[in-house]
Amino acid sequence: MIRRSRIAILYAASLGASIGVFFLIRSAGRSLTSAGTPRPEALARPTASEAPGILLHVLLALVVIIVAARILGALFRRLNLPQVMGEVVAGILLGPSFLGWLAPEAASLVLPVNTAPYLALISQVGVVLYMFLVGLELDMDLLQERTRAAIAVSHASIVLPFLSGAAIALWLYPRYSANAVSFTTFALFIGVAMSITAFPVLARILTDRGMQKTRLGVLALACAAINDVVAWCLLAFVISVAHAQTGSLLFTLLTTIGFLCFVLLIAKRGALRLVRWQTAKGRTTQDIFAVVCAALLLSALVTERIGIHALFGAFLLGTVIPHNSVLARDIREKCEDLVVVLLLPVFFVFTGMRTQIGLVHGSREWLACILIIAVASLGKFGGSFLAARWTGSDWREAASIGVLMNTRGLMELIVLNVGLDLGVLSPVLFTMFVIMAVVTTLVTTPILHQLGESGAPPSPAPAAS
User: Fold this and answer.
1) pLDDT at site 117
2) DSSP one-letter string for 111-170
3) Low pLDDT (below 50) residues in the chain
4) What is residue 458's predicted lDDT score, i.e. its pLDDT?
5) Which member of 63, 157, 291, 336 has the greatest number of CB atoms within 10 A?
């Protein structure tokens, strides 16, 4: 009891100190002037005369996207790198940074501008479904293994990079911020973008190395699970702050809290009842699956209407279905292949179409990009390493946890696209952070290999992002 009280007091003190530091950064940034970078222009919309040919272009684009994603994903897998990062790189290569620069005519044939709105819609549906699957895979029982260490590491891996991100915002805001965004919103978003850990990518790396059931693997998964929940709650808060410029922040926060309570207290009971219904039926019928789909879309609809993005509603609903239930397993089997093979690669390509590496030119921009990578890596690694050492891990295990928590992958790209849509990130800064997400994820496996961390030989596992 005394130890729990001490942990609670220490946690409250660290939270209060972090809030205090952020307010100091906020007060320092109030006098700064936005860089005034204009928001990206709206994606082109087809006219009525173009409509008949749109379907042909979209179908051709989907074929090219799937083929490129599978080829690059397989290549990265052979190099012992996360397959999902190969798919991310495929998306960037199909965009203006490579194909549009190398062969503009081929790019306009494969991915004409008038297909962008349709690819954007498909990608958004894919990401909503993917976030539902991420929530569905969260195993909160992992916390029972090493509760104190998991909570300490997960929160330290958020607090330090969040504050370091807010601090670097003091330098980025007058140089690279989008037009008409306040410093508070900008600093909050940069802090969240620095704090993200990609739970699915981390889980796949551990599985590929046979480490998912080791002491290190269990701790890393537990930390990433908590990190996911906290980081997405922070993102919801930042989105509500951004939207509050034209509405009521208090109303958004209150409705968010109300919906959160509804899902955790009432919808969770409904999910348990649905699991019992599925058990009584002996299989997941189409009616049961239809109920899940309707609840998923309704949850996403509510959070989108509240103003905290549909992704949060999908993720939240996924967490209330017991991850080890037959229902959860059947849902994953029904949805995972469609989402991973078709819909997510569309999101990668859409992100690639918005990533213009050519915007990062000259020594100043590349130095800024390197600085972002360094701050993101040191903040995430440093917070995780220090907390792991404090809770009893040796230096090798602590360093491995720090490296694993620095894995950002797809989750970072989702956050960055939200920031670009909100107008918080300028196209240049968006590109810099995409480069940061790719670099910090790609270095994870080689560094783990150098640290000598591995487990038993892994059993064959299905491809996952």
Assistant:
1) 87
2) S-GGGHHHHHHHHHHHHHHHHHHHHHH--GGGGGTSHHHHHHHHHHHHHHHHHHHHHHHH
3) 42-44, 46, 48-49, 246, 455-465
4) 38
5) 157
Residue with tokens 């009971």: 269
Question: Using CA atoms, how far apart are residues 187 and 373, in angstroms rounded to an integer?
Answer: 17
Residue 165: per-residue pLDDT: 93
Domain ranges of the chain: 54-451
Bridge partners of residue 425, in order along the sequence? 177
- Asked whether the beta carbons of 196 and 413 are under 8 A apart, the reply is no
- State residue 13's pLDDT score: 79
pLDDT for res 315: 85
Instruction: Give bridge partners of residue 204 from the DSSP assignment.
Output: none
280, 270, 289: which is closest to 329 by C-alpha? 289
What is the token pair recorded at 387? 């907390």
pTM for the predicted model, two decimal places: 0.80
pLDDT value at residue 40: 56
Give the length of the chain: 465
Closest alpha carbon to 372 in 239, 193, 224: 193
In angstroms, the CA 196 to CA 230 distance is 9
For residue 188, the model assigns a pLDDT of: 92
SS3 content of the chain, % helix, strand, coil (to 5): 80, 0, 20
For the domain 54-451, what is the CATH code?
Answer: 1.20.1530.20
Distances in Å between the alpha carbon of 32 and those of 24, 313, 419, 429, 430?
A: 14, 35, 20, 17, 20
CA distances from 182 to 32, 199, 364, 417 (A): 10, 30, 23, 18
Find the Cα–Cα–Cα–Cα dihedral 308, 313, 316, 321, rounded to 10°. 180
* Contact present, 328 and 322 (Cβ < 8 Å): yes
**Within a 10 A sphere around the Cβ of 86, how many other Cβ atoms?**
24
pLDDT of residue 136: 86
